[in-house]
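Database export, one record per block. Field names are fixed; values are copied verbatim from the stored entry.
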Amino acid sequence: MKTVKISLNSIDKVKSFVNTITRYDYDFDLVSGRYVIDAKSIMGIFSLDLSRPIDLNIHAEGIDNGASDILEVLKPYIVE
């Protein structure tokens, strides 16, 4: 599992983010405080506080080795 901080501070960003990650068979969770929701759920994302960066948990084997293409397509959303 890999965790990165992302920012989804606009409706268009949320829509493009969900469209991007639904292409992958991996599980993605968004964690905001004590809430954990499926990152592929637009309704779930809008139930979170999007004014601050949130944690994205990527449940993929070998994310540091072969699955780094996921991190590449998520670059527009990742915050340091």
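Remark 1: Residues 5 and 65 are 20 Å apart (CA to CA).
Remark 2: The chain has one domain: 2-73.
End of record.
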